[in-house]
Design brief:
alpha/beta, globular, five-stranded parallel sheet, FAD/NAD(P)-binding domain
């Protein structure tokens, strides 16, 4: 066990994906500009930086402009822009010749890794936060003690004045799959590339089910068809049809940073109505180009008569069984009432993520939190005796809008949180000098 009490960090960031990576940049910039000393530390459970590694599929492109990178909307002159990454890697002219706003997902991941490498000294990889405890002086909570577990099973303890939680969503496993959740033949899309080659689908006629009606489900279906040409693939979803995402320019303005202020200023019921109204920008929808690709594939199957990919719309999964032969799925047609059962060698769940307010490790400080609604700067409202700031990134869709779980607001949100955190350092220095 290692006890690291020598340094009390000004903030510990839980998770080091794009959200806290953007925060690392914003904190560095704010500290330099204000000439304040600020000591952040970011703790990431993965052994190295990877962004959605399980879905870095060959040929998959971003669905968001490269200009919505970690910093450009806040400061296009920053050395951490995607354009500067291209310049430093010698690919700027080649990218311009591609004539696109949408780089491949693989390249954007490489950009994020390039930025993350610049903050290596502030990052502890291969550690999972397991507990956060209040440190008190009298009746006042002055700081937090943060416990993490390493991949080797060791424990590290750190102190921090503030906390920023940005660990992403938890892969959502529908309740009907609960009894086979540990079956290696059941794979959530978040682990798709990590596990798909290990379930024995190569070189033989197999059956695979993909569950879901959105972008990930469609991408996985097309990748499976390319990767395992002998496999029969059933795409199972509840809607009437696969639907295109709405990325038209006027609708896209809901992802502008200024829209966050508009959403936050609305009464709760109006916020819910607005989020529902724009769900077709992000949930259970597919990029139009990808829909065209899948439709052409299905049409060519009709021409050749060799059916390898089949769609099952309006389908409700009602029961699951598993044995040595495979995972059996029982379906009911939601409208016509017919039912059938099929057995699969593998089942891929493209069922999204659970982003309910976290997290077990925050349990011991819950009593200081007034409610689970975050303030405008993504911070828990806490009792007066609780000094640490606790910010959450990616858990405020209901109060801050659909952009909260996406890349669109990274540059501005990180700036807002950084300024909030740095304000406490300024106040401490003023008190110390008084």
């Amino acid at each position: 066990m290692s006890h690291q009490f020598a340094i009390e960090h000004d903030v510990i960031g839980v998770g080091f994906g794009p959200s806290n990576l953007a925060l690392a940049i914003a904190l560095d910039e704010c500290a330099r500009r204000s000439r304040l000393k600020f000591t952040p530390m970011f703790v990431e459970r993965q052994p190295h930086f990877t962004w959605h590694g399980g879905m870095l599929l060959p040929g998959s492109d971003m669905q968001i402009s490269f200009l919505k990178d970690l910093v450009s909307l806040r400061d296009p002159t920053s050395p951490f822009t995607f354009v500067n990454y291209l310049h430093k890697t010698g690919r700027l002219l080649d990218f311009i010749n591609c004539r696109t706003f949408y780089p491949s997902r693989l390249e954007f991941n490489e950009y994020l890794r390039w930025v993350a490498a610049r903050f290596k000294s502030q990052t502890a990889y291969g550690e999972t936060i397991v507990a956060v405890e209040p440190v008190t002086a009298g009746q006042t909570v002055t700081s937090l003690r943060v416990y993490s577990r390493t991949l080797a099973g060791g424990e590290t303890i750190r102190l921090t004045k503030n906390l920023v939680v940005a660990v992403g969503g938890k892969p959502y496993i529908p309740e009907v799959f609960a009894k086979v959740a540990d079956d290696p033949r059941l794979i959530h899309s978040s682990r798709y590339l990590d596990r798909i080659e290990h379930v024995g689908l190569s070189g033989r006629a197999t059956r695979v089910a993909v569950v879901g009606g959105g972008q990930s489900a469609t991408e996985v279906t097309l990748d499976l068809h390319s990767r395992f040409p002998h496999a029969r693939i059933d795409l199972i979803f509840r809607g009437h049809a696969l639907k295109p995402s709405d990325s038209s320019p006027f609708v896209n303005e809901i992802f502008n940073p200024s829209f966050t202020d508009f959403i936050y200023g609305q009464p709760c019921e109006r916020r819910e109505a607005i989020v529902r109204n724009f769900r077709n920008t992000n949930y259970a929808v597919v990029d139009s180009d990808l829909l065209d690709q899948l439709y052409r594939l299905l049409y060519q199957q009709r021409v050749s008569g060799d059916i390898k990919v089949a769609l099952h719309p309006r389908s409700e999964i009602v029961n699951i069984d598993a044995d040595s032969a495979g995972i059996e799925i029982g379906l009911v047609d939601k409208f016509e009432g017919g039912s059938h059962r099929s057995t699969y060698d593998a089942v891929i769940l493209a069922t999204g993520y659970d982003r309910e307010t976290p997290h077990a490790f925050l349990g011991s400080i819950r009593r200081y939190v007034r409610d689970d609604v975050l303030d405008r700067h993504y911070k828990f409202v806490t009792s007066p005796a609780f000094r640490p700031q606790i910010h959450l990134q990616g858990y405020a869709e209901a109060s801050h809008g659909l952009s909260d779980t996406l890349l669109s607001v990274l540059a501005t949100r990180s700036q807002e949180i950084a300024e909030s955190l740095l304000s406490t350092v300024s106040q401490r220095e003023l008190v110390a000098s008084a």
